[in-house]
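Changelog-adjacent note: as of this version, every example in the card shows the full chain rather than a window. The one below runs 189 residues end to end.
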Amino acid sequence: MARAKGEERRAEILRATLEVIAERGYRGATLGAVAERVGLTQQGLLHYFPTKEALLVALLAERDQWDAIPGDSWRLDLLSSLVDYNAMRPGVVQTFSALLGESVTEAHPARDFFTRRYVVVRGNMASVLRTAYGERLPSGLTPEQAGTLMVAVMDGLQYQWLLDPEAVDMSAAFRDFLHLLEGAEQPPA
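Full-length structure tokens:
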């Protein structure tokens, strides 16, 4: 019972961390602000997460679990559904995007996480494309080439959508990109 309560409290802390980072960015988010949001002292928070870096890595891992589909179960239609799902949760997308942007600096604690994550994600995208199209897409690209582009498009669309959601329909733009991969001449109606 105590373990379940501890896991519940950790989940509450992670949700609060997501909110604080979305509001202030990683560098502006403090352990004190997170602790206050969940009704703990900073020392009480450190019982669950010994450092800010540990909290960040746990948050990123948890966020990936929210979207988790086993690597061999991804399909192109599920990718479109993931983009649709992300369009319904701007706070999560904003936090992820802010952390991703900040992580490109050498000393950022999430740099290794994102570097490893992108190796896996690019591999998953190449696998999805290989399953759908074989060793060459209709456009002539290999699954690895197109997989890298797919990840770039997904993340780039998130940034554009966050900055100007009225002008950028993330879901429609991603479906347009999938259409480009097919090498078709006319976009679908």
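Structural remarks: The chain is about 75% helix and 0% strand.
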